Write the structure tokens for this entry.
Amino acid sequence: MVRIYDTLSERKVELKKTDKQIKMFVCGPTVYDYAHLGHARTEVAFDVIARYLRSAGYDVFYLENITDVDDKIIVRAVNEKTTPQIIAKRFEREFLKDMKAIKVTSVSKRARASSFIKEIQNQIQRLLDKNFAYKTSSGIYFDIKKFSDYGKLSKQNLDELRPGWRIELDSEKKDPIDFALWKFGKEELSWPSPWGVGRPGWHIEDTAITEKIFGQQYDLHGGGLDLKFPHHESEIAQQESVSGKKPFVRIWMHSGFLLVDGEKMSKSLNNFITIKDFLGKFSANVLRFLIISSHYRSPINYNDAVVRQVVSSMGTIEDFLGKLNLIKLKNGGEINISAGDYENEFIESMNDDFNTPQALAAVFKLINDYQDKIWKLNKAEAQYLKNWITEKLNLFGLIIKKPVIPMEAKKLIKEREKLRMQKKFNESDLLRRRIESLGYNVEDTPAGPFYKPC
């Protein structure tokens, strides 16, 4: 049974397996700039969660929104002397390219906010009708004091927040914390409405999307920890006020921050790393491994030393799988080993709030236990271990491919092996150095030469 930590109740909740579809919504990007490593952290974390739930027999519908209506998009469009629509479409395309590159494949549907203006306006009107919202000269606002549970997700003390809250130049707001449902304005990114031309506020976009696709209540809501307040808090207020039903979401999940050398990413600090920039230096496997090496709720402190450790750990797995490929048939090809204990540890770890570092530890435990026994395995046993490891890595979106060796290096490796068999070790050492100059290492094993990139 999968148990998930619920941010609202602050306890682990069982996700029982039934015939009903699990409805999971995760907050997606605001498409005004390139996606960065913080986005990757959330996207990969929930991609792995969806992959695992499906592998465990849950029918998961994974919905993600695309925020293509936002003030940041308008500002960038003004600065670049273009339209908000062009900016949004451009960076949505870039985001989707990045997601494909880092193998985020489990999302069932992505929904643009701009495609749900009718539903957004309908939800706002119902909030007005129920007296949970009011109109000012600048827009329609949610009346926080009408929703007594505001703050229950983030455990915020609203009285302590109010004195320092920015009032957005609107003295007509009843409470500094009241937030915009609809903003009046005739910018290019605007639509007619019963109350005046304008555009939706950020929070109302998500509840309108999920109500249309999932209904007024659903199972899982995920997103980065930075969205817990005020975004997710406001979602709860909107949907529970409109529907009168509690809870809006059964389980709230929040991924931790990704820091760079202990600090938040910022262009002013020159530590802002886009996914595209990262993939210019390292593989998607390295990025995904970096992320799953930490529990999804824990912070990740990104630095060069962490990346080096990830590359080293990936190398351990790649070497082990590569050596398993060398093993030829012997001893009748019977399987006299079992991955049962490692399998149990892996499943127990993932069932316990998707503890990916502990699940990875089960994979490394198997590798470590068989390092000294590897050349005693027959081909069937080697294939059995390879299949088990590969299956687990695939759940994490890690695809280990055999390195492509150029023909020149292959020819030298073959020639060197002949010399070694003839005990012409001086000549074989000369060829080893030539192979290394081409960027490949050769290790002599009982099953033949094992070669890999330096």
Summary: DSSP finds 15 helices and 15 strands in the chain.
